[in-house]
Design brief:
The protein is of the alpha/beta class and 360 residues long. It has 13 helices and 15 strands. The relative contact order is 0.16.
Length: 360
C-alpha cells in the first residue's frame, strides 16, 4: 500500500506521523512510504534519514494526501480539508467531540477516519492515547512551574518551596494516566499535591503508588469547590473517551483562586473541564482571565517532538502495518482498531461522538 506522511501544519507541531525507523519497517513489509519534504525536521529527522529508510520524498502536501493511507499526528486543519480523498484511510488524532466543523467535513469527504484516541483494547485501555497522555501529564507540571514564575505572569511561587517557606500547592482533577504522571512530577519537584478522582478503585491504586505523598480526595462538587481556590497550580486531567470533557470548574470558582495562579487543562482538545479555558497555541500559550493565568495548548507533546514521535510510533506502528496490509478489512480483523473508526463512507459511526452530534 502507498502510505503518505504529511508535514504537520498546526502551530509549532513538530511531531511527525512516522519516524524513519517506522518507515523502514513499512518498506521492509513491501509498502511504499511518501514523506513530505521537511516533515520530520522539527523532530530531528532529515529528508536524508527518510531516504535511507526507503521513503520517497515529495515536495508538497498534495502528493502525500493522494495516497491510500495517510498517517498524521494531529487532526486536519481547514487548509488540509481540500486534500482529503474519498475512500482514503486517515489515521491520526481527531478529537471530533470538540470540533463540529471537522466532523462535518470528514463526513462530507467520504474518508474513512480512524482516531488514535478511540482505539480501545478489550480491558478498556487506550493504547494510542496513553503515550501522549504520559508526556502531557508530565509537561503540565513542567509548564505550570514555568508560568508560575513572575516574569511569565505567574504568582512567583516555587513549586518545591525552600526551608522555611511552604511549597506550592498543586491540585489535579482526575487520577487517570495524565493525573498520575502530573502527580509523579509534582511530587518530584517537592510540591504539595492533591488528586481529586471519582473512581474509588483508582483512588486505592493511587494510594499504593504514592502512599501519603499525595492527598487523595473523592470527587464531588463540594470537594472541588474546596480544593480549587487553594491551588497555586490547577491541572485538569479529566477524560471521557470520545466525548467532551465535563465542566467541573465554573467561572465563579476560577475567580476565587489567588491572583496569578495558573491553570492548565490537558483535556482542552476534548472541550476541557474548566469553563474559562479555551485553546491556545505554543506561540501564544497563555492568557489571563478572572486574574488567573490560563494555559490551553491542545498539542502539548509537540513541545518535545523527538520524544513524542518515538513514543507515539512505538504504539501506532503495529496498527499502521495492519491498515497497510489489509486496508479497511483490518477493522474487521482487529476489534481495537475497529473501535478507533469515527467516520466511514459519509457516516459518523463512533457511538460517543454520535451522542455529541446526534443531528449528523
Amino acid at each position: 500500500m502507498e502510505i503518505g506522511v504529511p508535514k504537520e501544519v498546526k502551530d509549532q507541531e513538530f511531531r511527525v506521523g512516522l519516524s524513519p525507523s517506522s518507515v523502514r519497517v513499512c518498506c521492509e513489509k513491501g509498502h511504499q512510504v511518501f514523506v513530505e519534504t521537511g516533515a520530520g525536521a522539527g523532530a530531528g529527522f532529515s529528508d536524508e534519514d527518510y531516504l535511507q529508510a526507503g521513503a520517497k520524498i515529495v515536495p508538497d502536501a498534495r502528493e502525500v494526501w493522494s495516497r491510500e493511507l495517510v498517517v498524521k499526528v494531529k487532526e486536519p486543519l481547514p487548509s488540509e480539508y481540500p486534500l482529503i480523498q474519498k475512500g482514503q484511510l486517515l489515521f491520526t488524532y481527531l478529537h471530533l467531540a470538540a470540533d463540529r466543523e471537522l466532523t462535518e467535513h470528514l463526513i462530507n469527504s467520504g474518508v474513512n477516519a480512524i482516531a488514535y484516541e478511540t482505539v480501545e483494547l478489550p480491558d478498556g485501555r487506550l493504547p494510542l492515547l496513553t503515550p501522549m497522555s504520559i508526556i502531557a501529564g508530565r509537561l503540565s507540571i513542567q509548564f505550570g512551574a514555568r508560568f508560575l514564575e513572575r516574569q511569565q505572569g505567574g504568582r512567583g511561587v516555587l513549586l518545591g518551596g525552600v526551608p522555611g517557606v511552604r511549597p506550592g500547592q498543586v491540585a489535579i482533577l482526575g487520577g487517570g494516566v495524565v493525573g498520575t504522571e502530573a502527580a509523579r512530577i509534582a511530587i518530584g519537584m517537592g510540591a504539595k499535591v492533591q488528586i481529586v478522582e471519582i473512581n474509588v478503585d483508582r483512588l486505592s491504586y493511587l494510594e499504593t503508588l504514592f502512599g501519603s505523598r499525595v492527598e487523595l480526595l473523592y470527587s464531588s462538587s463540594a470537594q472541588i469547590e474546596r480544593v480549587v481556590p487553594e491551588a497555586d497550580l490547577l491541572v485538569g486531567a479529566v477524560l471521557v473517551p470520545g466525548k467532551r470533557a465535563p465542566v467541573l470548574v465554573s467561572r465563579e470558582l476560577v475567580a476565587k483562586m489567588r491572583p496569578r495562579s495558573v491553570l492548565i487543562d490537558v483535556a482542552v482538545d476534548q472541550g476541557g473541564c474548566i469553563e474559562t479555558l479555551r485553546p491556545t497555541s505554543h506561540t501564544n500559550p497563555t492568557y489571563v482571565e478572572e486574574g488567573v493565568v490560563h494555559y490551553g495548548v491542545p498539542n502539548m507533546p509537540g513541545a518535545v517532538p523527538w520524544t513524542g514521535t518515538h513514543a507515539l510510533n512505538n504504539s501506532t506502528l503495529p496498527y499502521v502495518l495492519k491498515l497497510a496490509d489489509r486496508g479497511i478489512r483490518a477493522l474487521a480483523e482487529s476489534p481495537p482498531l475497529a473501535k478507533g473508526l469515527n467516520v466511514e463512507n459519509h457516516q459518523l459511526v463512533h457511538p460517543a461522538v454520535r451522542e455529541v452530534f446526534p443531528d449528523l
